[in-house]
Amino acid sequence: MSALPSPPITATKRARGRPRKTLDERDEGNRRQQLLKAAARLFRRKGFDATSTRDIAAAVGMHAGSPFYHFDSKGALLCAVMEEGMRAALARQAGVPVTPDNPVPSLRRLIRSHFDTLHGPGRDFIPVMLYEARALTSRQRAGINKLQREYEAVWMPVLHALAAEHRLPADVHLARLLIFGALNWSVQWFDAKKRASLDELTDAAMALFIHEEAQ
Prior knowledge:
Blueprint: H1 23-26, H2 28-46, H3 53-59, H4 67-70, H5 74-94, H6 103-119, H7 125-131, H8 138-153, H9 155-164, H10 172-185, H11 198-209
Helix pairs in contact: 2-3, 2-5, 2-7, 5-6, 5-7, 5-8, 6-9, 6-11, 9-10
């Protein structure tokens, strides 16, 4: 009995259209956010120079070179962390009712929102911006500075209104620098488990910044 003839060999058809995405590509948005959060946490705890991309990749269960699919370099990742922090701060501040016609409550709300940014969810991002800006390129720094100016611009009409009412006993521009310096320094020492609540911290800040007799 003779063997059956072999079926003709046909070429495998290639699927038309774009190549199938890898797992990282299909989950790009989530993986990018995971990298940003891990990088922010590590940059804050260890510092930018002491943190490697291997450290960041390991923190999110990725291969050592995988972060470079999402970011061109460790410096680009640092800049993205700072941008993420500032945009989150801007979004939070946008929900704060602020009016120069009622400057004292407005300043209180702005300070409370700022403390939420520094000490609430996502609290690793802004400290990285405060202490690792030296690692940015001049172009990256210009972009971050633009976001900072946008954020601080909301405060200026309130501070001017307080000065006009003699409630802010200092030059407005110096007051802005001193206020942000004092608020931002709290990332070095504030611990909600050992110290006051954010509301109590806000009360203390208001007592320092606003003229006592006018309150």
